[in-house]
Amino acid sequence: KCQEKGTPQVLGGQQKAAESSLQHVVNETTKEMVARSCATIITHPFHVITLRCMVQFIGRETKYSGLFDSIVTVYREEGVLGFFAGLIPRLLADILSLWMCNLLAHVINTYAIDDTVCRLCRCMKTYTHWSLY
User: Fold this and answer.
1) Sign of the CA dihedral 54, 57, 62, 66?
2) Selection from 98, 100, 94, 101 nearest residue 40 by Cα
């Protein structure tokens, strides 16, 4: 019943609270991972075109002249898969960095910062993402 109401479940002990807190971090990180992955997949074709235009500028080439011309050129030369070149490494890097940062913030907030000791420690929690759960 407590979980249905949205309040954390505390069943007598710090171990249960830590497990509930970790489960909350895992659930929120999973939701954020899905949202970021969808956004990355949707915007990746524009990322590919942007990078190709930047490299073209540095190399002083004239292959891509505008957005629509770039779309036509990539489609003509590489097909639809050309718009998704490099998508898997980018997704893996995004997902890995998201999990590492969120779990590190959780560990710091749970074990390294003791907010009962001083007011400064409570203020330090505002600099991490998981300070409000």
Assistant:
1) positive
2) 94
The answer to whether 20 touches 10, Cβ cutoff 8 Å, is yes
- Whole-structure pTM value: 0.69
Number of helices (H), then strands (E), in the chain? 5, 0
pLDDT, tens digit, 9 for 90 and up, residues 56-94: 888 888 888 888 999 999 999 999 999 999 999 999 999
DSSP three-state, residue 4: helix
Amino acid found at 39: A
DSSP state of 65: -
Token couple for 111: 């074990």
Indicate the angle between helix axes 14-59 and 87-107, nearest 10 degrees.
140
Distance, CA of 116 to CA of 92 (rounded, Å): 38
